Structures are given as C-alpha cells and as structure tokens.
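Friendly challenge for the regulars: who can give me the structure tokens for this chain first? No prize, just bragging rights.
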Amino acid sequence: MTSPASKRPRIGSADKELSSSSSSSLLDPITPSILQKGEQLATLYQKASPYPHAVIDNFCVDGFLESILTELKHNSKVKFKETDLFRVYQSIDLGNLKDGSELAANMPNLMKLKNAIYSPQYRAFIENITGLEAGSLTDEVDCAANCHTRGCHLLCHDDVIGTRKVSYIIYLTDAKPEWTDSDGGRLELYDAIAEEDRFVPGALPVKTVLPAFNSMAYFVVEPGVSFHSVQEVFCDRPRLSIQGWYHTKEAPSQIENATLQRLKSTGEGENTEGTFQPMADEATTAAAAAENEGNGTESEPTFSSEDGKFLGEYINKAYLTEESLNEIRTRFEEESSVKLRHFLNDEWSSKIKAAFTRQDKGDKVGENNPSLDYHVGINEKWKAVGPAHKQRFLQYQEGSGSSALSAKRASSEDVVDVGEHLGHLKQNLFQSAEFGRWIGWLSSLGFPLGYRGRIRRFRPGLDYTVAHYGILTTNAVLDTTLCFCGGEGNQCSFDEETNELIGSDDDAIWESGDVGGFECYIEADDDDEGAEAEYDEEDDTQLLSVSASFNTLSLVYRDPGTMKFVKYVGSGAPSSRWDIALEYDVKIDEDDDDDEHQL
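First reply, four minutes later:
Bragging rights claimed.
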C-alpha cells in the first residue's frame, strides 16, 4: 500500500491579497507579520511529519487574547461532557453566536476574532498555506470554546465528520507561568500504519505539540491520515482553547476510512479480540459442542468435589461451598452479571499485589504523577497494543515457558513480574476444565465451547479501550474478568448526607469513576444515526458499569448486540488497572425466554 498523498502548496497567491488596505481592519486581531509569511508557513507545513501540520506562534496581536479570556470568564458557562472518547467542559458555540445578540455584545473581541478567522481573506490564507485549491473553503462557521481541566482528555481520532476540511486550535492557556510538559494537554499526532486496505494509527503518538498561549495549530482533515488526540491535563490550571474547522462543499473521498465510520463497522479487519480457542479438556468441549449442536440445549456440567479441590488452590474457598454456589447462580440468573470480591485466596492475591505495586512505583505512574513517557512499562514481556483509535494498553506476551517459570518461582523470594503470576493463572486456572465446569454451573450456560482473551495493563494517564462494532459477537459470550488495582477490594457505602463514598481511599477513588478504569457495557445502536452519534454517560444505551476493584472477578453475560469499553485510566488513579480478561463462547437454548440472560 502506498503512503497517503498530500498536495503541494500554492505559494504567494494569497499574500498580496492579504496586504491590501481593504482587509486590514477585518484582520486587525491577527499579528500582521504572520500574514506576510505564507511561503514560509506553506513550506514548514508540507515538511512536517507524521503528516502535514504547523503551528503559528504569536498568532494574535499583543493583549488581544487576554481580552478574550476576560470576556469568556465573565460571560460564558461550561457544560461537562464525558464519553468513552473524551472528557471535557464545552463552552460557547461560536457558530451560534450571532452579531447583534446580547451575548455577542458582551464579547466584542471574541466576535472580532471569529469574523477575522472566517473572513474570505483569511480563508484564502489558510488555503494557501495548506495547499488547498483557491476558493475551496466555505464561509461555514464551526468552532467553540473548550476547557480541559485536570483529568480531561480526548482520545485518538481523525476529525473527519461531514464536510470538515481544516482543523485548527487557538490556545488560550496561561501565559504566565508558561505551560510546560508536566502540565499535560499536548496535541498528540500519530503515524498512519498500513493495515489491510486502509491506514490506522499506531499505538503511541510520534509527535506532540505544546499548547502554548497565543499559538494556533492546524492541519488538513483527511480520513486515515490526520490521527491526533489531546493528552490528559495533569495540572490544576485550565487548558482553554478555541477549536474549530473550516469546511468544504463536499465530504472528502474515502470517508468510509474515517475513524468514526470504522468504529461503526463490522467489516473484515475491525475485530480486535482474536479467535476462540478450545478449553484444556478437549473431550468435554467437543461433547458440549455436539450436544448444543444436536438438540439446542445447554450441557449441565457436573461440578465435582475434585474440581473444588483443584480450584481451592487458587480461589477463595468461600466461593466453593454449596451455599455460596447456589446464591451466586441465583443472582446471575436474575441479573446476568455478578461481582465476586476477594476472589483469589490470600496467598495468590498478596503476591500479585506486591508484584504490581512494585512495578507501578518503579514506573512512577498513578497517584497524580504526570504520565510523560509513552513507553513506560514497555519491554520484551509487555507490548503496547493498538490501533489507538480503538484501544491502547500493554499486553503480556505469554511465552511457552512463562507458565512453568511462574509456577516454579511463585513461592520463592525472587522478584517476579506480575505478568508471570497472571500468566500462570490464565493458563492453569482460567483455561482449565475445572474452571470451565465451575462457571458453566454458576451461569447455567453449560461448559464453554472455547475462550479467548489476554492479560492487560492499563497505565494511568495513558491507556483505554473504546466501544466499537468490531467487538460485537455473533454468539453470546460470558465475559470473565479478574481485576487487580490499588485498594483493598471492598464495597464502599454511600453517605447521603455528605454525598461521599465511605471506604478505603483507593477503593472509593476507583468506585467513584472519576479516574476511569471502569468497564462499561452499552447497547449498539439499531438505527442508522451515522457515525456522529456519541456514547454519552447520560445515554440510555448504557447497560452496566463495573468499577475497577482489587482481586475482584466479574462475570457478565454479553449478547451479540452489546459493546464494552474500559474507560481511559486517569493519572490520578491509585495504580494501573491490571486484569485477566477472557470471553467464553457459550450457547443458550433458542427456545429460552429472550430476556432471561439480557443485561
């Protein structure tokens, strides 16, 4: 596949027009010397990587953006919005801010800036420095004032929606003291990597742009090319900006390759979860498959005392008694999900906690440490997984000898990577016939036909997954996730008088959801709303949210119409989120009540 093509810039044609006296008053907010640098800016733009982009410093004349900041602080209100893709405070939509309105009268300088940057003269300047055809940008105004506070972020996307053509950001961050790397909020740019018949972003950014006060970043919006994100804000100062787009009359070619379209695609290459593998007991798996195929009923696994003895080497024995098994089964049948706290026995949970605590502290992540190193924690055992418009986390590489090594060293005093412990559990516990019979009995879904899954680490300030149609399954699955993170793994209570969660500090932080890390289940849209539809926290498509909790197993029945995502883990999280995340392929009787196992 060839690399995405970019057009050569047209140089010089707009400079003469911009220097005419007729346009000078309209363009007064913009530093005059900038308008004479079309050739220089066009050259810098085309030479930039990973795709053409540029930053104009000292964009507005001295004192002008300070006056806009004052107007915004005194006249605008912000609305908090959060989805799987972003967390932000949105303010004034300048496209709806009309001349003559009371609000516009209270913000004359903001109106001057809007009129300047969308004027025919400045649009011609933008066309010139980005290599676009003259007259291709329309007069449509599409911009807003946004505020990113501590913890706010915007995950990887390409900005392609409708007729958008050029994206720009004018930064209104504090001028004194100057914004620094440790403050976060950088614009992150990604390489386009060839995959199948399209381009996707790499897992990690390859270039970042500091949101310096009175600078303007810009680039042409192009499907499968203009991948970018906004790094989490790590400081208590707001990252203010005016962000918007210039439009053309027609949507770009190959719009089907835009990230939002790809998130709603079930086509080839969109699945990120891999294929199902047979359980360890192939004979039992084959028998279950044959029975389900033959008569459409579940096989009822026999959970024996020998199974309990084996599982007791790993699992808290409270979950192996007849009374608890019946209680868990009843709850799962009623709710299609169950959360089992303190799941592993003390021996296993304590050594896993010691291992991940050591690794997190060594990497200096979480607890409000700025996440400045995208490569932290990446080594021969832990690899970064993308593409970034769908997911980013570290996956443990399960080698042929990792399980045996972990088993041999598990009780020793050697320093053991947490991945070795988790790898041993995945292979020897979660992939065992004994565990298959246990979850088959608890869920009433029968012995699993197969499994797929991995060992993941979500680093604070860096990692996440996004809801997308590529994870939709053709059959029902039983999601089985064992989570580890900072805290004790206890259920917090809620004090209605103080409106606070009561429990250990770390447990309460995770359960509040403020630092992300929770796994959210949402319903895929049946109607054709287009890719502009958002997955909002207030949307009624949300079915279930499972907060991160130490040594906690969650079992969730997921039907073919349900998606899930792990919300971006913020830098304020007490630790990384570590988990063993598996899906078990299950069959249910087609004659059963449709609602019996619905979330």
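Residues 319 and 593 are 28 Å apart (CA to CA). The first strand starts at residue 54 and ends at 56. Your move, everyone else.
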